[in-house]
Amino acid sequence: MDQTPKPGELYRHFKNKLYQIVTVATHSETGEKLVIYQALYDDFGIYARPLDMFVSEVDHEKYPDVKQKYRFEKITLNEIAANEPEAVSVQAQAGHEPVSDADEGQAPDPRLMEFLDAATFEEKYNILVSMRDTITDRLIDDIAVVMDIVVPEGPLQKRYDDLKNTIKTRQYYEFSNRLR
């Protein structure tokens, strides 16, 4: 059975903190697999840990009161909602709709796929402009994740304009020799 974490999966550490998997990376010198994961609390720090350690069992001699078998155990949003309803309500108050586990098998938004398939930032910009009247916060968040940028929370139109300006800036430098 493959225990390798997948991007987007949620895990609970045996000390009861929640984390989300970013990716599994390969150390460039040693070839060792590293789990890259993000805290879902405080400053939302990003951490790396060797895969073998990530999937290892808790040292019950050192931590005799811990009930959890593994150092990190995969969980679902439904489990979080059942055990920590305040965590889900905090997401709702911030304007985020929790993604249900049923959404995992759902096909991605075709507009997002078109955006991802665009070869240049000029194409991406034109696609985004064509979405002006149908853009959603979810689509903005998805595009921001793909582009590895942060679009601050706020009114939809402002978020759309911020995203559009970021893409326009990248378009400006895409084929330029300005930075060489």
Number of domains: 2
Number of strands: 5
Overall, the morphology is elongated
Structural class: alpha+beta
CATH architecture grouping of the largest domain = Roll
Report the uncertain regions: 85-105
What's the name of the CATH homologous superfamily of the largest domain? DUF1653-like domain
Mean pLDDT level = 81
Share in β-strands: 15-25%
Distance between the termini: 48 Å
| Largest sheet geometry | 5 strands, antiparallel
**Number of DSSP helical runs:** 7
Radius of gyration of CA atoms, rounded to a whole number = 20 Å
Biggest sheet, strands in spatial order?
Answer: 4-3-2-1-5
User: What's the CATH topology label of the largest domain?
Assistant: SH3 type barrels
Organism: Agathobacter rectalis
Protein name: DUF1653 domain-containing protein
Domain DUF1653: 10-74
InterPro entries: DUF1653-like_dom, DUF1653-like_dom_sf
